[in-house]
Amino acid sequence: MKAAVLVFPGSNREGDVAQAIELVTGQRPQMVWHGDGDFEKTDLIVVPGGFSYGDYLRCGAMAAQSPVMAEVKRRAARGVPVLGICNGFQIVTEAGLLPGTLMRNSHLKFVCSDVHLKVETSQSLFTNRYQAGQVIKVPVAHAEGNYFADDDTLKRLEDRGQIAFRYCAPDGTVDGSGNPNGSIRNIAGVFNETKTVMGLMPHPENATEPMFGGTDGKALFEGIVEALT
Amino acid sequence: MTIAAEKNPPVKLPNEPAITPQVVAEHGLAPDEYQRLLKIMGRDPTMVELGIFSAMWSEHCSYKSSKVWLKKLPTSAPWVIQGPGENAGVIDIGDGQAAIFKMESHNHPSYIEPYQGAATGVGGIMRDVFTMGARPIANLNALRFGDPSHPKTRHLVSGVVAGIGGYGNCMGIPTVGGETNFHAAYNGNILVNAMTVGIAPTDKIFYAAAAGLGNPMVYVGSKTGRDGIHGATMSSTEFNEDSESKRPTVQVGDPFVEKLLLEACLELMATDAIVAIQDMGAAGLTSSSFEMAAKGGLGLEMALDKVPMREDGMNPYELMLSESQERMLIVLKPGREDEARRIFEKWELDFAVIGHLTDTERMVLSWHGDIVANIPIPPLVTEAPVYERPWTLTGLPPTLDASKVPVPKDWNASLVALMSCPDLASKAWIWHQYDHLILGNTAIRPQDGDAAVVRVPGGLSGGGHKGLAMTSDCTPRYVQAHPETGGRQAVAEAWRNITATGALPLAVTDNMNFGNPQKPEIMGQFAGAILGMAEACTALDFPVVSGNVSLYNETEGRPILPTPTIGAVGVIDDIARAVGSRLTQGGLCIVLVGETKGWLGQSLYLREACRREEGAPPPVDLAAERRNGDFVRAQIHARRVAACHDLSDGGLLVGLAEMCIAGGTGVEVAQPAGNTVPSHAFFYGEDQARYLIATGVADEVLAAAQKAGVPAVVIGHSGGPALVVKGLVSLALSDIKSAHEAWLPTYMNATE
User: Fold this and answer.
1) Chains A, B: CB contacts under 8 A, how many?
2) Is residue B1 predicted with pLDDT exceeding 50?
3) Among B465, B472, B516, B521, which is most buried by a count of CB atoms within 10 Å?
4) Helix or strand holding residue B367 (H, E)
5) Searching chain A, which residue's CA lies closest to the CA of residue B575?
6) pLDDT tens digit sequence for B404-435
7) Are B575 and A109 in contact (CB < 8 Å)?
8) pLDDT tens string A10-43
9) Catalytic residue from among A14, A34, A59, A86
């Protein structure tokens, strides 16, 4: 599997996700500069975490208009899988590839912490190595991860199985206690209609080694490799 | 000294005010210092020149009160590559890699404007580290706030923590450790000490000394604005009720630009185009340019009109004194300007050739062709004022007898109260606002160990992967009671915290926060702390490689507690052997290492439970520290240790409770039979050089201890959901944990 990881000037978890991909594929992904509207064909495009262009405006709003994102949109329309993590989720959402929006955390503070996620479906190229209902532990690190969508959109997402992950308690209970940012219906990650684009706030790339946060995030990358190889 | 003849006397700027004694005083120069200036210049200075002297001779930049004492600290060891005097200290950590680190204060700005003050403190210290060619791998911070009931404290905590997080999180450098205390002595003057640790190849370290006649001097980074003018001078005076009016002297940070600057600098450093590089920190363009020229023994001509400016109408005085952030000064090899410019333009940063090196040893500054300053560089540096200020050492208070300290009426309540007092309560509310996981190398996280342990990128060492342990420590109440003991203890505790993870402590950065040095008792605190630190650093082979001095931490004449914060770094060859302090399994023996005499003087128990701050602080036996620490580290390396925690604030019982609630496993312990220390002194005393070890092979540990001459005794075993001390304490861990975790969020969420 060949992967591309986008690099905006303020990206800062591009190395973490590149390392995770290298760990499961044995191959360093291609790093693609934000001004590069024409990059090598790849099986997967990752939009990593960070602060794109500083994000002093609404997070991801400027990045969504960048040359590289114009190309990502074209490729996503052709079905090339896109994974947006944290700031990448914000960017992909701002670019219109995913429904909803990410607002300021309800408590108005940055939060970095391990969280528990309930896997909503194993029926996607991103989650095929998990069981539906499985609880995994991965960290979050963001100030604007409070997912919001209007009722109609939420209904559509639920009906079509487009919710990928929900924040939950360690025992899998989906309630306020496990929700780190106020996201509506505890939504941590969503798919587009074809499930070829996924965005999530948590960082599976920081949960791929036993000594450094556990390995619950590794299966996500392994699943992608399996689906795309 | 003979001064090179001045060929080009400067012109005065339009509307330049006359230099009256009042103007001189406003620049923080004492009358005799001004006489010294006149002697060096041989004429009246221009305003630009006066401003330059003012900044360079400020306490902050010149260390004029502290220099004579700082010389007493040991600064060398075979593994020290660069000691104090550069942007940061550099130590060899093996395999061709160096750790580069420093701690620096941003106290005054953080009190005036907590978010920006703290944020730019973090930005400044990171620049100090990456200026030397290192990619930062971790940040730490040591914070001291006023009494929680003081009306400003909540606002300051909130702003400082958000500011530190806002900057470090955006930069993508994990903030992995630190400490936070509260005491009324900081009500009017908080402390914000930030530390950065970076990694570089030992053969790719960059220094500030300029070299090469005619080489271009290049300005990169952000544009210069009018923020932070006279910041260094502001930081060198006491506070009074007008301090709010000094808000414009605080800089405003832009972490996004610093991230660009970091990447651009490291990209340029990967070429061989750089001769010397220096960040613009305190006193901005002034101190950076003078330091580079002085260290290289050269002169410098700069055209200030070439400096990228943020706003119209700026003048040379403002340009030289602005402390706008995210700027660097670089001496390039000749002909490499275009290559360097391309890199900075790629990162959308300013790049301007603003001058060149000369052999005149003079700083000649021009403004649209007119010379506006012409200063001989060597005397400004070598003849800077140095004071041996009068000092009075603090005497050792009498030892407090444990029999004079009340026994807890209710042991359970006393432990819960201590675990939830402001100094000991969980600081999770703080470090959850710091991205402590980015880069994916954090092996021991905040609160999981005595020191943070971070994997060294590229640090393959033998069969394992190398890690760095890092911590920051000081117990100001000990330093206040007896500065020499307190200085010794701060170093010893940092050494212990590194040791407790299994790492070998290597070197120290010190951040000396004190009151007004013109008061003999304050200067005596400084002197005493230095003497104690020097003794401990020598005994523990723990040299000081970098540091920062912050004086005049007083408001309305009331000084802070003397706070010599010790930042420390150690190395562990195989990170898989590092241990934390979390007790995660039952069936282990709990071994107390070190001697317990039951020292209650200056203990937290005395302060929190008895509302008394008195007595001598616990003595620090450096030979015992070394012996016990080396023993503990050897046990960890031998894989005999499941968890380890040094004993400090709150003593044995607090240390035990911290291990239990962090790992979710209870214990049952008892005071050893035949031990005659009164129970409250045994369990709450703060004797030094002690550790708790959880081990599955107590026999082996005890045998090794006996062989090493180290006191060690099994006091109980792990297991169950409660902390039980036979006959005294029986508490569900959940009760301790909820009290421990509730204090800070409850306090911060309250509205008055």
Assistant:
1) 81
2) no
3) B472
4) strand B362-367
5) A211
6) 999 999 999 999 999 999 999 999 999 999 99
7) no
8) 999 999 999 999 999 999 999 999 999 889 999 9
9) A86
